[in-house]
Design a protein that fits this description.
By secondary structure, the chain is α+β, with helices and mostly antiparallel strands. It has helices at 2-22, 137-153; strands at 35-36, 39-40, 46-51, 56-62, 66-69, 72-76, 80-88, 108-116, 122-129. It has a domain at 42-153: PH-domain like (Roll).
Length: 169
């Protein structure tokens, strides 16, 4: 009798342990995490880009706290209002200079960043990555910057427009 009671206790404990182990709960993604408990992190990489309407050469970096252009100033994540990404062809054809001509990996990536300045004014900044005929490195930099920006913002860049697609049967 005592032996069967001990066996029953073991089965009950084993059942409880299995139920606890299999129950849904909060968990982490371990080695895949790219954000820490205090907020976003980034690769710390500095990106060569073109900035402003004149598209002058600049360097852009993202830290845990700021988005910085040319190593000075910068904005905090709480100042960020939104980001719009557009991809367009501005490259002129070699044979017909009045025609634009691009392959998909030659599109300009323009990030328009809207933010609040220190005195509360709404402002916009333009950061561009412009690949040309034989250079596709700008596209790789743009993808890396987009990924870092999404991690820093802790949000994803989404196309502007309706999120519901209506289909006929």
């Amino acid at each position: 009798m005592a032996r069967s009671l001990n066996r029953l206790k073991r089965w009950i404990l084993l059942g409880l342990a299995a139920a606890f182990y299999c129950s849904p709960g909060w968990a982490d993604l371990g080695g895949a995490d790219i954000t820490g408990p205090q907020g976003a992190t980034s690769t710390g990489q500095t990106y060569k880009a073109r900035c402003g309407l004149k598209k002058d050469e600049c360097s852009v970096s993202l830290t845990d706290e700021k988005l910085v252009v040319n190593g000075t100033g910068g904005i905090y994540k709480k100042q960020l209002i939104g980001v719009k990404l557009t991809k367009e062809c501005t490259q002129r054809s070699l044979l017909l200079p009045f025609v634009t001509s691009c392959y998909p990996n030659q599109l300009d990536w323009d990030f328009t960043i809207t933010y609040l300045s220190e005195n509360g004014e709404r402002r916009s900044a333009l950061i561009s990555f412009m690949p040309r005929y034989f250079s596709t490195g700008a596209t790789d930099r743009a993808r890396g910057f987009e990924r870092d920006l999404e991690v820093w913002m802790q949000d994803t860049l989404r196309p502007i427009g309706p999120s519901i697609k209506i289909e006929k049967d």
